[in-house]
Every structure is written in C-alpha cells, then in structure tokens.
Fold:
Amino acid sequence: MRKFLGLMAVMAASLVASAQFSDPAKDIPAYNSQAPHAPLPPVLSGKQLTGVYFSHPYQVTAYKMAAQVPGVLFQQPCYCRCDRGMGHNSLHSCFEGLHGAECSTCMKEAAYTYRETKRGRSAAQIRAGIERGEFESIDLEHIAL
Structure:
C-alpha cells in the first residue's frame, strides 16, 4: 500500500510540475472563426466618444477604426484576456462599451486589425499576426484613419 501511495504522490507531483511547461501558444483568447451571421452590437460612436474615457485623441480614433471593420474584429482574439474577466467573445466586444478606451492592448489590436484589413489581409491572417504579437508595435499616439 505504501508503494502505491508513494507512486501516486510522485505521479501527482510530476503532473503539477509539468503544468508550468504548457504551451502558451495554444492558450488563445476567445474569438469567432467565421464572419458574423447576424448584425453585431454597434461599436460606440458619435457623442458616445466623449468624456473622461476619451481624453486622448487616439482613444476616439481606435473606436472609429473599430467601427469600420466590425466583422473582422469579431474574428479576432483580445490578448488583454477580457474573455476571462468580462465574458467577451472577441475583440469586437471591447468596443461595444468603454473597455476598449481603457485598454491599450485592445486599442493596439483594433488599430492593427484596421491597418491590416486596409492592406488586404484576411481575418485569419490578421489573427495570426495578433497571435504573434505584431500589434504590440502599434504606437497609439500616431494612429490615424
């Protein structure tokens, strides 16, 4: 019985220790693999882009960019991990409310998605770039429509 318990303890310790070596590339936040089949909730716009949450011009610009590519945003993950804490199902969710204005990750991903869409890249290609972290090089102070 001692050998069995000892073996079980070693197996449990091995399993716990191996968890730290899981593949983070497979831990992709929520997104939709296909274009939306129904109208999406609107991205904030107009007078909604004023007030304390929009004190920097790039915050407004990020929302305007998001509004131009909603179906593509719907197919992108958001690496601020708002799917876990806020229940978002894609990058589009961040711009349906104020979260996108508060989060540089969301704004950089939206600006990256807008730019790459304008360059003719597909939603899947953009998603691959986001997964590689290419959005991190976006300088929010210099984004423009």
About this structure: The CA atoms of residues 56 and 74 lie 25 Å apart.
